[in-house]
Amino acid sequence: xxxxxxxxxxxxxxxxxxxxxxxxxxxxxxxxxxxxxxxxxxxxxxxxxxxxxxxxxxxxxxxxxxxxxxxxxxxxxxxxxxxxxxxxxx
Length: 90
What we know:
Order of helices and strands: EEEEE
Mean pLDDT: 85
Strand order of the largest sheet: 1-2-3-4-5
Strand content: over 45%
Distance between the termini: 25 Å
Number of helices: 0
Helix content: under 10%
Low-confidence stretches: none
Shape: rod-shaped
Largest sheet: 5 strands, antiparallel
Structural class: mainly beta
Number of strands: 5
């Protein structure tokens, strides 16, 4: 299963005047973000995986980055369940 979204928030300078001491680009705020969620199960259902992550672009600083929000692998046996990876526990 693949799920996600693309989000963009931008504010640009419409004139050529810059505030004193603020030379630079036209972006006042710029953020582009791609979030993906990938999950799946093995054919017999004893193994599953989950990945949630973000890739983002900061247009003001002109930097690209990413973060893994969750990523884990589950396995189940008759007497034991094991989850390995990064997960959110609240």
